[in-house]
Amino acid sequence: MEDYLTRQELADQMGLTFRTLELWAHRRKGPPVIIIGRRAHYHRDDIAAWLEEQRKPSKATPRTRRVSA
Fold it and tell me: Model's pTM, two decimal places?
């Protein structure tokens, strides 16, 4: 089970609340959840893959300069 984090462990590592992860799981957001018994667990590989999916390319547009005529 060393490859799995509990909901509280993941919340602590990500700076989130337990409740946020609970709501995400209910809304099918966030990393995939595995229920073992009555407890939610998250596999480290699933967390890493989910975090990578959250990376969005920068949509910053280059600044244009106004030139006085």
Answer: 0.76
